[in-house]
Specification:
The protein is an alpha+beta fold. It folds into two domains: 3-228, 3-Layer(aba) Sandwich (Rossmann fold); 236-323, RNA polymerase II/Efflux pump adaptor protein, barrel-sandwich hybrid domain (OB fold (Dihydrolipoamide Acetyltransferase, E2P), Beta Barrel), CATH 2.40.50.100. It has helices at residues 41-49, 91-101, 106-119, 135-148, 165-182, 193-199, 217-222, 227-232, 292-297, and strands spanning 3-12, 15-25, 30-34, 56-61, 64-65, 76-79, 153-157, 185-190, 202-207, 210-215, 237-239, 242-244, 249-252, 260-270, 273-280, 285-291, 305-310, 314-317, 320-323. The strands form four sheets. A six-stranded mixed beta sheet has the order 6-7-8-3-9-10, with helices on both faces. GO terms for molecular function: ATP binding. This is Sulfate ABC transporter ATP-binding protein. Residues 3-233 form the ABC transporter domain.
């Protein structure tokens, strides 16, 4: 099911959470709403779900307005950050809950629950209670419960935000594989750039209640429309008026045309890469990413004077983008 948000605005008192927001979520896509805390992404998700009412604008599902349709009639599954599990129910009963209140036949419920528990790799945990599960397992249970009623849209609000980094990484990979199997239109909120870049097919960057840019991960990373997008979607350094990805800066040991003199403050070797922290003559900090081999060959070390030149950069002037 395709989702279209047209000119939606929402205020809470004097705070403008959304201002004239328009965005399209293609049918069957996996879309991330990415932005800083308080930027409006969760409010937009709740407006799509019908949990918040927009002050202006409309939401359409497959071209049909749903602005006045209550949440329970929108065919939407919603997963919150904090699981919202029924603690007194087993995993099986939690997953079956939505089907039971819809009075589906018992045989149908049992079959559907078995399918979902297998899909989310919890088929061996059906008789356990939420307190007996890890955080990642509880979140997978919550996803199974949301999918049980076969929603046409799945909405996830910071689904992995309460988990540690290792579990988040595992669940990101799992969500991507799950989406490939179920193909339900999915929108998830995150402030984690890496999460959005790894998982989403489309990223919508939201800041201060407005859409900064929407596009594929590659489009946003390679062709950011604004300095905010470039700085939020991936690492960025600045050489004068040039916005540069750290891996697009060359380090030279001798003066070079167009190069800026800098002094190395620290070299951190992490796996295959080496992260070189420097400061320019005016004191501005710069981060450069090179291979460990290059760092070794150039014998890069703290205190060393080098020259920096970007081989690819973005220059933003009066809101317009120029790339080289």
């Amino acid at each position: 099911m395709a989702i279209e948000v047209r000119n939606v605005s929402k205020a809470f008192g004097d705070f403008q959470a959304l201002g004239d927001v328009s965005v399209v979520v293609p049918d069957g896509s996996l879309t991330a709403l990415l932005g800083p805390s308080g930027g409006g992404k969760s409010t937009l998700l709740r407006v799509i779900a019908g949990l918040e009412t927009a002050d202006a604008g409309e939401v359409l599902f497959d071209g049909e307005p749903v602005t006045g349709v209550p949440p329970q009639h929108r065919d939407v599954g919603f997963v919150f950050q904090h699981y919202a599990a029924f603690k007194h129910m087993t995993v099986r009963d939690n997953v079956a809950f939505g089907l039971k209140i819809r009075k589906r036949p018992k045989d149908e419920i049992a079959t559907r629950v078995d399918e979902l528990l297998k899909l989310v790799h919890l088929d061996g945990f059906a008789g356990r209670y939420p307190a007996q599960l890890s955080g990642g397992q509880r979140q997978r249970m919550a996803l199974a419960r949301a999918l049980a009623v076969e929603p046409k849209v799945l909405l996830l609000d910071e689904p992995f935000g309460a988990l540690d980094a290792k579990v988040r990484k595992e669940l990101r990979d799992w969500l991507r594989r799950l989406h490939d199997e179920v193909h339900v239109t999915t929108v998830f909120v995150t402030h984690d750039q890496e999460e959005a870049l790894e998982v989403a097919e489309q990223i919508v960057v939201i800041n201060e209640g407005r859409i900064e840019q929407a596009g594929s991960p590659d489009e946003l990373y390679e062709s950011p429309a604004t300095p905010f997008v470039m700085g939020f979607v991936g690492p960025v350094s600045q050489l004068g008026d040039q916005y540069v990805r750290p891996h697009d800066i060359d380090i030279h040991l001798e003066p070079v045309d167009g190069g800026l003199q800098a002094q190395i403050e620290h070299v951190a070797r992490v796996g295959f890469e080496a992260r070189v922290e420097l400061h320019l003559a005016d004191g501005a900090p710069v981060s450069v990413l090179v291979t460990r081999q290059q760092a070794a060959e150039q014998e890069l070390e703290a205190g060393q004077i080098v020259w920096l030149r970007a081989h690819r950069f973005h220059a933003f002037a009066e809101g317009e983008l120029a790339s080289a």
